[in-house]
Amino acid sequence: MNREGSLTAETQAATSCSNCGAPLTGPYCASCGQKSRIHRSLAAFTGDLAAGLFNFEGKFWCTLPMLAWRPGELTRRYVEGQRHRFISPIGLYLFSVFLMFAALSFSGALSSVEVTDGLDAAARDELTALQRLEEQRAVAIKAGQATAEIDKRIAGHREGLKQMEQLKDGSLPTGLSENGNNPPWLRNALRKFASDPNAVMANVQEATSKYSWMLIPLSVPFVWLLFPFRRNLHLFDHAVFVTYSLSFMMLLILLGSLLVMAGASGPASLLMLVPPVHMYRQLKGAYRLRWWSALARTALLLCFAAVVLSLFSTVVLALGVFG
């Protein structure tokens, strides 16, 4: 009976797709693309795993070199329909974001962010500056010189030191308290930050990784502004351009983190020169621009990128503070 059941299953698998039920005309279903012969064995599972790994690696090694050296051609070929050979933009972006934050966490760059340490260092600087000014004031008094300007600077440093101590104690600085003229939402946010600044920064870091996808919709309208009269372009084209570009930037940050971890901070700092060159090459190749047109749009794109980063930083900061 088991044999009959097996033969029946094989007959069904040979005539119709076990996934969608469509009639089979070859080794793959014409409707959903699944294989016509399905095996329930460990060998089949191992084969599928190997095929998936090698397929990803094949796409990865086709995509990554082009993303680095010929980003414009990669963008254009994907937009024009050559998509089987390359990793999709959103897939590569998510993979890049995961690797970047994993490397930053492993290196301790994220966990080492302690706001209280920064306040302590700033307070020490203020105290040192205050002591120097008091010494200058003592010298000026002995010389019979006026000390009004020095007194004003001393008062400023003392006020700054006082506000830092208030933040460290978990209270709002003078002028931001309930008696101030600031709106309630600002006072509440500052109070939350003052009570536990490290927890707020941890929330901001979490929001940055969780909502990193927002960089794409924030960037696409600005890229569209570079080509307002090109009717042959679609928002899809700009989205592909933006996502591949952001993926490269994430991988660049990953490379910089690895170099810093290896003790090569000098070469890592030189990577800051790469983004403008990459933007220029991608614009020129993806949109088939002349060099002067690509150069002008690169300058605008750099300004737009600064605006997008400011907007994104504001959003994740708000999510970290109010979330």
Provide a compact summary of the structure.
This protein is an all-alpha fold. It has helices spanning about 1-15, 40-70, 70-80, 90-105, 115-140, 150-170, 185-195, 195-210, 215-225, 235-260, 265-270, 275-285, 290-320. Helix 3 packs parallel to helix 12 (about 275-285) and helix 12 (about 275-285) crosses helix 13 (about 290-320).
Q: In words, what does this structure look like?
A:
The structure is a single chain. The protein has 13 helices and no strands. 18% of the residues are buried. The chain has three domains: 1-38, no CATH class; 88-112 and 204-322, no CATH class; 115-183. It has 323 residues and is mainly α. The termini are far apart. Residues 1-13 have low confidence and may be disordered.
Report the sheet with the most strands, covering strand number, pairing sense and barrel closure: none
**Model regions low in confidence, pLDDT < 50 over at least 5 residues:** 1-13
- Count of individual beta strands: 0
Radius of gyration in whole Å, from Cα? 29 Å
The average pLDDT is 81
What structural category characterises the helix and strand content?
mainly alpha
The portion of residues forming beta strands comes to under 5%
Number of domains: 3
Features:
elongated, mainly alpha, disordered N terminus, 323 residues
